[in-house]
Amino acid sequence: MRFKASYNLWLIAPAALMVAVFFLYPLYFSLYSAITLDNGSFTLTHLEKAFELYSNDILFTIMLVCVSVFILAILSITIAATIALSPFKRITSLLGFLYRLPLFIPFIVTAQMMRTFLAKNGLMNNAFVEAGLLTPMETISLLGWSGIIITFVWKQMAFSTLLISGAMAALDESQIRAARNLGASKIRILFEVMLPQITPTLGVAMVLSTVTMMSVLSVPLMIGTGSPTMMSADMAFRVNSYGDYHVANALGLVSYLICAGLAWFYLRQSLKDKGAVA
Amino acid sequence: MTRLHIENLQAKYGEKLILNNINLSVEEGEMIALLGPSGCGKTTLLNALCGFVPISQGDIFSGDRVITHLPAEKRNITMVFQSYALWPHMTVAENIGYGLKVRKVKRAEIQSRVNELLRIVKLDNLQDEKVTALSGGQRQRVALARALAIRPDVLVLDEPLSNLDAKVRLNVRHEIKALQKQLGFTSLIVTHDQEEALVMADKIAVLHKGEIVQVGTPEEIYNKPNSPFVADFMGAENRIEWPTEKDGFSDSSHKITLHQSSNNEPSNQPKQVYFRSENVILSTRQTNSKIQKEEGLILTGHIEQSAFFGSNYRISVRCGMHIIQVDHTSDLPMNTPVSLQVPNHALYIYDNIVENKVHQKSTVV
């Protein structure tokens, strides 16, 4: 028996309602609030104010995220490739276990950990001093932009390696064997056989990591030096100190546009690849 | 000249012995088929040759070179895979030329070699196609061209035809054989299909439970199987164990006799008799008389089933406890009493003791 279309619509109604209430409405409202005055008329003043006050922070955020994602990609690929191509199975299975640990540690704990590790009198510098590599006078604090990058990379590496490693494991083993018995070294196999085939997954891992980094508040608050800082910290500041939701939402709009731009670039790229295959 | 020589090779997966005591020589320009049922270790043997599976004992020589422990990329042995293993992000030409690119051959030279190979495997004008746009048969030809491009010392083919449909398989089989004759490459082909092995190979090595049980020309393997396993695997699927007292031949309509001219052995010594369905001469009771004079195995029974095979009928004849498969030109009704005769030259007779020996040896594996 066939149901009418209207019956079928009822089936998706609960799920659609959830998405609308808990996702679409808040998103719409924050975008709306970013470009309207309290009386509801359209304005660009919030955006102008956001750029006037925080353009340095916006640039700082973009730079930090770009550098983090770049380092992240290199490290994740290195780890995943080592696991996929190394002949030493015992060591790689240990590596396979170790790299996943950060998945289970929340950002705020990571930030706290990094704070005690990277500070001028933190664990890392103390260890160097104890080992006689540095004197207490020579130690430098890595809190600040470099600390934020280290924390982001440390935390996101587990996630992106997991994705990339999975994609590499899904490749047909005989493709790699075919390259090997034609004389290709492991590095060549990685760059010419494996990476071109896992680019879509790499893209997904990097886009998702970017979105995560843009939205984390604890890391810039705990590891950053205050100024310049990341946009998420600025938004919290606008809301907590001034109750100024309009500018906070305007900053939100900017960070949303950055992520959307990236997603668009990624989608275009993957569509292009698919178009070439078809 | 011996191109590839394998000596006392042994390979294990963990503690499990997969290959044991493998000895095989492949002459220059020869094609040897490794034939065996699934799980007999034939693919493992190819992987061991290519360096994908570590060898626990023994040696492999390629010409005068010992390659036993060389990494896969230094062996100059290339494989054609069952799943083609082409790289989907490269074009046909890029796939074929990859091995040359790795060897830092000049671009123009790669181009001309790729064109030459495309012509050989009859894929001209497809060089710029993505391999994902090709059919199965075309893909396997690209894989073959890719493996041949670097002029390997030995080409190994791992069930290259089993992913192709029946008609394409015959074409590609013929093409591979023709190419092998034309170009004279040394090769090993793994297959579980006895017909494929017979048609393509210069020599066949039959593997059973990780050991080579017989090596010989296709004719030798087919006509003189040296063990019950080889006989059975090469299509002699009808099997009768001697003596036959308990096999239900006491009934007057089900009888069995074995006449051999050189029969010096006592007939009650335990034996196994194998024969092919196509070698059985079937006659209904009316034509009985002329058969009895000849020698060989003679059985009587009745027809239990008949299946149409296209060129003939495969008839199942109940003879005592046994069901004997017989090829016959025409269909016969159920329960027709018939007599069967198998001439001496088509019987493969093994002493049961020998079989036990083989059996004991294989359980060690």
Automatic annotation (TrEMBL), chain A:
Record-stated family: Belongs to the binding-protein-dependent transport system permease family. CysTW subfamily.
Keywords: Cell membrane, Membrane, Transmembrane, Transmembrane helix, Transport
Gene3D superfamilies to which the protein is assigned, alphabetical: MetI-like
Membrane topology, from the record: Multi-pass membrane protein
Transmembrane regions listed in the UniProt entry: 7-28, 58-85, 97-114, 134-154, 202-225, 245-267
ABC transmembrane type-1 domain ranges (all copies): 58-266
Protein name: Sugar ABC transporter permease
KW Transmembrane helix (keyword) present: yes
Subcellular location: Cell membrane
Organism in which the protein naturally occurs: Marinomonas colpomeniae
The keyword Methyltransferase belongs to this UniProt entry's keyword annotation: no
PROSITE patterns: ABC_TM1
TrEMBL record, chain B:
InterPro entries named among the record's database cross-references: AAA+_ATPase (IPR003593), ABC_SmlMolc_Importer (IPR050093), ABC_transporter-like_ATP-bd (IPR003439), ABC_transporter-like_CS (IPR017871), P-loop_NTPase (IPR027417)
Polar residues compositional bias, start-end: 258-270
Region (Disordered): 251-270
Tree of life domain: Bacteria
Domain ABC transporter: from-to ranges: 4-234
An example Gene Ontology molecular-function term: ATP binding
One Pfam assignment: ABC_tran
Keyword Repeat: no
SUPFAM superfamilies in the record: P-loop containing nucleoside triphosphate hydrolases (SSF52540)
PROSITE patterns attached to this UniProt entry: ABC_TRANSPORTER_1, ABC_TRANSPORTER_2
UniProtKB keywords: ATP-binding, Nucleotide-binding, Transport
Stated name of the protein: ABC transporter ATP-binding protein
Organism: Marinomonas colpomeniae
